[in-house]
Structures are given as C-alpha cells and as structure tokens.
Amino acid sequence: MAIQWQGVMPAVTTKFTADDRLDMVMFEKNVKAQLEAGVNGIILGGTLGEASTLTQEEKETLIRETLEIVEGKVPVIINIAEQSTRDAIAVTRRAEALGADGLMVLPPMRYRSTDRETVVYFREVAGNTGLPVMIYNNPTDYKIEVTLDMFAELLELDNIQAVKESTRDITNVTRIRNRFGDRLKILGGVDTLAFENLVAGADGWVAGLVCAFPAETVAIYKLIKAGRIREALDIYRWFMPLLELDITPQLVQNIKLAEVATGIGTENVRAPRLPLEGAERERVLDIIDTALKNRPELPEYKNLALV
Question: Hey, how many other C-beta atoms are within 10 angstroms of the C-beta on 185?
Fold first, then answer.
C-alpha cells in the first residue's frame, strides 16, 4: 500500500495481559477505535509500544495481526530501532516479508554517531528495502540531529520520504519546506507542539495521546487542514494537560492510564516499567478525570474538505 505520509498516525501502545503476554484482544479493540476515528496509519513498536522489551517473535505477531485488523484500510508502519546496522537491516527485511507497508527508522541510540555515520546508517537501512521510510529526528531524546544538509544526502534515495519532526523547533517545519518543498513530508512528533506544527505546514501528526483519545486528535488535524483554526484551537487547549502526559519518561504508564479511562486499554506495562503509584498516580488520574468531565463536543469532522 502506498503511504501518503499525512494525517494522524498513532504510535500505538502494545497491550499486555496481567501475566505479561501480548493482549491481542484489547489491542484489536484499540486499533479499531483508531480506525473508526479516521486515522491515516498505524505505527507499531515505537517508544509507546515498549519496543525495547519486545521479542522479535512478538514484533512479528504485532505486524501480522495488525495487518489483519486494518484490512488494507490504512498502512501499517513498523519502527526500526536496533543497535547495529546489520540488525536493523535484518529486521527491516523481515518486516517487508511479513507485509508491513513502511518503516519509521531511528538512529542508533546507544552510540552517539557522527553525522557521516548517521547518514550511512540510514542509507544502508533504506537501501536494503523497497519500503518507504520515515526518518525519526529527535535530538532531544536521542542526542543525534539529522540536519537539513544530512537530509539532502538522504533524499538521494527515493524511498526516504518523510520525517517525524521532533526537534522541538517549530521553525524547522518552514526550513524543511523551504529547502525540500514537498519532497520530504513532515509529520510532527511532539504532542504538545502538534497544533503549531500543523499550522506551520506539517503534513501530519505522529501522535501519542491519540491512543486514548483518537476522535479528538483526528478532529484537531482535520479542522486545521480545513482552515477552521479557532475550532481546532479550542479542542487543543482542552487537550493540552493530557498531551503533556506524553513528554515525560513515564509516558507509557500515563497514556495507558488514559486508555483505561476511555475503555480501550489496560494499565499493564512490561518491566522494568511499573504502573504508577502514590501521589504521581493520583496526579495523572486527576488530569484524566478533569479532561473527561470537560470533554468537548466535537463537530462533524470526518468529511471536511481539506485545503
């Protein structure tokens, strides 16, 4: 399936049972809620998906079953976050063989690679697959920035098509657009900057809180792209305390608590993560409860004419 690299693409959480197995029943319920809300793709095995704790067998199960759930309605994208170029290529080839539609590729995270090493790494991974690739650019968390000059080299490969833009610099959206036009699609990757990214011209949003609030997330995107900025802003202001739950080290626990509150998830995480407790748990629950009590009524957004 061709990927347009636009709209809302949830970085979905991985659901676990109480005895630490994949919970595909709840996973399917959540993915179907995303589809019903109108998302444009499903991203598996990212940070929210607790990728570093998943076995290769579990990752393959997630790919196969997600493809069955979505039934070709939206592309299924797998995160590549391996520690060596060789392993990244191997996982990429296996994902392609299983039928994944695209890749989101992170730089090597345990080694702070040089600019040259980073470019070579991305080129090696992309050059060993026919799948379209989105580069994840997050220097805040991963300490490696993919600069515009580096992208100029990477875009020599036709299948490098998009960037998950998480530099936290809103002006980077304009710099990318000025330099590359539509050749490099831009998807904002920081929930608390999503509105600003989209208004600045980003093509889409790789979202986190969408896992619990899919309709509100898609509504914001659609309203902005339809030019109904004021309506989008009202929803976004309501959403902000929830969106801030995505920018802490405990984002997985936070978002899974929100999924419980909206009935499309469980609190189960995989060790070394543990469920929140004490004052921090009560703080997060209070944010979620306040949001639910003030949940906005959404306009009809699914069929808006986008500009």
Answer: 20
Is the preceding omega at residue 272 within 30 degrees of 0, hence cis?
A: yes
Q: Kindly state whether residue 301 falls inside one of the protein's structural domains.
A: no
Amino acid found at 135: I
Give the Cβ contact number of residue 77 at 10 Å.
30
Q: Which domain holds residue 212?
A: 7-293
pLDDT digits (tens, 9 = 90+) for 179-192: 999 999 999 999 99
Residue 306 in domain: no
In the sheet that 204-207 helps form, which strands lie side by side, from edge to edge?
Answer: 7-10, 204-207, 185-188, 160-165, 133-137, 102-105, 76-80, 42-44
E-only strand ranges, 63-211: 76-80, 102-105, 133-137, 160-165, 185-188, 204-207
As a whole number of Å, the end-to-end CA separation of the chain is: 24
Domain count across the chain: 1
The SS3 assignment for 288 reads helix
**pTM of the predicted structure, to 2 decimals:** 0.96
Render pLDDT for 148-167 as a digit per residue (tens, 0 to 9): 999 999 999 999 999 999 99
Rounded to the nearest angstrom, the gap between the alpha carbon of residue 288 and the centroid of all alpha carbons in its chain is 21
Q: Is residue 103 part of a domain?
A: yes
